Q: What sequence folds into this?
C-alpha cells in the first residue's frame, strides 16, 4: 500500500550497475552474502561506483528475496521476488547464479576472484574452506585480494562455530540489557542495528585495506564479528563499567546522567528535550515562563534528587500546548528539542524532503521504485540510487565478458546445474 504522503519522483536516472562514475570506479567486488550485513557492505561500495557482482545460489537466489511482505511491485501492481529487506541492501549490483558446491561453480568464483579487488562473504566460519573459496586459497590466485569475512562471533574463539543473527547478538552483547524501560526484561532495537553497523564497519575496513593495496601492500583477510561490532557500538556504556565497576542499567527514554534529557508529553504527542547543564536548564525555565523551577532546582544534584517531581511539573505545564508550538518556542530560545515522529511523519518532514533522502529508480523489469539514498554527500552530491538486480539476470554477461566463456560452455554449465541464468521477464507472485 502506498504511503498517504508519498515522496514525489525526482529526475534521478538509475545507471547500469558497474558503469557508475564514482570514487570507486574500476574496483570489482564479489559478494557471497546473504541477509543484511555483507550485502549492505557491498551495496555501499556499489553506490560509490564499484562493480559489485552478487553471487546467488542457483534456484531462488538470496533467501532474503522472499522475506516479505511487502515486496517491490511493478507499476501495474504485480509483486516481484524482492522483499523490502532485500531491496534495502542489494541495489546497484549484478546478479550471478552459481552453485559453489560443484566444481564448475567453484572454478567460476575462483576465476572471478583472480580479477577482482574484494570478496565479501558471511558464510558459517570455515564452510568455504572445503570448496577452496576461503581467504588463504583465493590469495594463491590473487595475492592482492581484500577478503572480508562477516560472522556472528568472529573467525576464532569458543563461539566461532555458533550461528548468530542480529537479535541474538543484541542479546549476547548486552545491548538489550540497556534498551527499554527500567522495569522491563530488555528490548531489541526496532531495526537490524547490529547487522547495519557491521555492514558499515566492513565497508570502512575494506576501503582502508584497498588504500593499503593500492599503495603497494598485499591483500588482507578482514574479520568482522557482529558481537565485536555491537560491543564497540556501546562504547561509552561499556567504558562506564570499565571505569566504575558498576553495571549500566536500562533507563528507558530517560538519560541516566542528565535530569532533563528525555521525553515530555505535550497536548498532542511527545517531544525530547535536552537541558543538561545548569545554564541550559535556566534557559529552558525562562523560555517556558517557569523561572520558579530554575530557582527551586538550581543545580544538577537538586534536579536529580527531585527528578520525578520536576518531570511531573513540566508535563503538566507542557500539556497546555502542542508539540509544534513547544518546539517552535524552544528552538527560538536556542534549546535542543525534537518531536517523537513515526516513519510517515519523518518522510513528510520538510528537512527530510529538502535533503531528498528518498529517491526513485527505474526497475530493470519496469516501474519506479522508491528507496532511501546513501546518506553521505560528496561536495554536496549524493551517490545515485541504483536498481536491484533480477536474480541471475547478469550471469551470462559476466561469464562472457569477464571470463571469456562462449555459448556452448555456458550452456554446458547451465545443464550441469553449476550456474543459473535467471529470468529477465516480468513475473507476478
A:
Amino acid at each position: 500500500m502506498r504511503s498517504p504522503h508519498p515522496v514525489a519522483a525526482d529526475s534521478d536516472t538509475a545507471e547500469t550497475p558497474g558503469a557508475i562514475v564514482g570514487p570507486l570506479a574500476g574496483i570489482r567486488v564479489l559478494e557471497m552474502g546473504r541477509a543484511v550485513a555483507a550485502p549492505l557492505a557491498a551495496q555501499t561500495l556499489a553506490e560509490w561506483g564499484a562493480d559489485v557482482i552478487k553471487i546467488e545460489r542457483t534456484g531462488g537466489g538470496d533467501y532474503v528475496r522472499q522475506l516479505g511482505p511487502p515486496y517491490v511491485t511493478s507499476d501495474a501492481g504485480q509483486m516481484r521476488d524482492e522483499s523490502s529487506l532485500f531491496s534495502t541492501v542489494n541495489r546497484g549490483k549484478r546478479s550471478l547464479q552459481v552453485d559453489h558446491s560443484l566444481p564448475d561453480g567453484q572454478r567460476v568464483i575462483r576465476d572471478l576472484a583472480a580479477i577482482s579487488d574484494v570478496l565479501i562473504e558471511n558464510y558459517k566460519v570455515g564452510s568455504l574452506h572445503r570448496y577452496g573459496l576461503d581467504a588463504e586459497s583465493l590469495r594463491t590466485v590473487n595475492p592482492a585480494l581484500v577478503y572480508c569475512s562477516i560472522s556472528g562471533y568472529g573467525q576464532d574463539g569458543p563461539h566461532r562455530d555458533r550461528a548468530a543473527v542480529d537479535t541474538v547478538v543484541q542479546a549476547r552483547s548486552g545491548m538489550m540489557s540497556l534498551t527499554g524501560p527500567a522495569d522491563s526484561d530488555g528490548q531489541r532495537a526496532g531495526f537490524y542495528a547490529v547487522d547495519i553497523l557491521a555492514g558499515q564497519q566492513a565497508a570502512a575496513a575494506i576501503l582502508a585495506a584497498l588504500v593499503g593495496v593500492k599503495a603497494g601492500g598485499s591483500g588482507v583477510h578482514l574479520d568482522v564479528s557482529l558481537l565485536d561490532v555491537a560491543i564497540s557500538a556501546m562504547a561509552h556504556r561499556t567504558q562506564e563499567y570499565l571505569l566504575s565497576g558498576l553495571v549500566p542499567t536500562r533507563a528507558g527514554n530517560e538519560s541516566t546522567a542528565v535530569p532533563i534529557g528525555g521525553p515530555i508529553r505535550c497536548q498532542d504527542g511527545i517531544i525530547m528535550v535536552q537541558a543538561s547543564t545548569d545554564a541550559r536548564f535556566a534557559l529552558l525555565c525562562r523560555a517556558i515562563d517557569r523561572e520558579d523551577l530554575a530557582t527551586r532546582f538550581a543545580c544538577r544534584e537538586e534536579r536529580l534528587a527531585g527528578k520525578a517531581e520536576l518531570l511531573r511539573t513540566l508535563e503538566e505545564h507542557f500539556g497546555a500546548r502542542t508539540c509544534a508550538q513547544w518546539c517552535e518556542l524552544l528552538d527560538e530560545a536556542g534549546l535542543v528539542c525534537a518531536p517523537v515522529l513515526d516513519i510517515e511523519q519523518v518522510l513528510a518532514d520538510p528537512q527530510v524532503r529538502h535533503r531528498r533522502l528518498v529517491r526513485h529508480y527505474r526497475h530493470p523489469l519496469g516501474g519506479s521504485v522508491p528507496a532511501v539514498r546513501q546518506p553521505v554527500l560528496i561536495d554536496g552530491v549524493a551517490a545515485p540510487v541504483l536498481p536491484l538486480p533480477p536474480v541471475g539476470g547478469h550471469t551470462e554477461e559476466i561469464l562472457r565478458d569477464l571470463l571469456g566463456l562462449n555459448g556452448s560452455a555456458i550452456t554446458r554449465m547451465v545443464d550441469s546445474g553449476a550456474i543459473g541464468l535467471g529470468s529477465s521477464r516480468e513475473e507476478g507472485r
Summary: Residues 263-348 form a domain with the formyl-coa transferase, domain 3 fold (CATH 3.30.1540.10). Confidence is low (pLDDT under 50) at residues 1-16, 424-429. The two ends are 16 Å apart (CA to CA). The first helix runs from residue 37 to 47.
